[in-house]
Amino acid sequence: MQRRVFLAGAAVTLLPFAAEATPEALADAIREVTGGASLRAGKVTLDIPPIVENGNTVPMSVSVESPMTADDHVKAIHVFNEKNPQPHVFNAWLSPASGKAVVGTRIKLADTQKIVAIAETSRGEFWSASAEVIITIAACIEDVT
To answer: Which residue from 47, 79, 111, 142 could staple onto 89, CB 3.0 to 4.6 Å apart?
Structure first.
């Protein structure tokens, strides 16, 4: 049977899924990475624009104060968000050979929300920083009727 014939004759029901994560899902995702260890403020700098017109491509970088030696270095940088469909955005794995604990990328944000960056160290510590990002709607796409 051809695919188009099959689809035309089938009753398809699309079930809605959660369009966004929740603060609870964010907390669960963080707990999964940290194993429930406490987060300490400091050492992490999260650089992301506070207001973004287009959430499709939001520039961000995370840097962590660390000597990046064999005994004391950042093992990973984890980024989370509060309202996208998946709360865990990405992991970046580092080693002393990385030289600096810095990661830059672009992410997609579905709505105004909180972003959390967590640095995991070779000493088993978790350092964090967070930022609120406001996503605006461009005036040219507003309904003016």
So the answer is: 79
Helix (H), strand (E), coil (C) string for the chain: CCHHHHHHHCCCCCCCCCCCCCHHHHHHHHHHHHCCCCEEECCEEEECCCEECCCCCEEEEEEECCCCCCCCCEEEEEEEECCCCCCEEEEEECCHHHCCEEEEEEECCCCCEEEEEEEEECCCCEEEEEEEEEECCCHHHCCCC
Residue 17 lies in a domain: no
Chain segment 52-105, per-residue pLDDT in tens: 998 889 999 999 999 999 999 999 999 999 998 899 999 999 999 999 999 999
Q: Is residue 44 part of a domain?
A: yes
* Alpha-carbon span 32 to 91, nearest angstrom: 13
Query: How many domains does the structure of the chain reveal?
Result: 1
CA-closest candidate to residue 68, choices 96, 103, 102: 96
User: Which tens digit of pLDDT belongs to each residue from 66-77?
Assistant: 999 999 999 999
Exposed e or buried b for every residue in 67-83, given b needs 16+ CB within 10 A?
ebeeeebbbbbbbbbbb
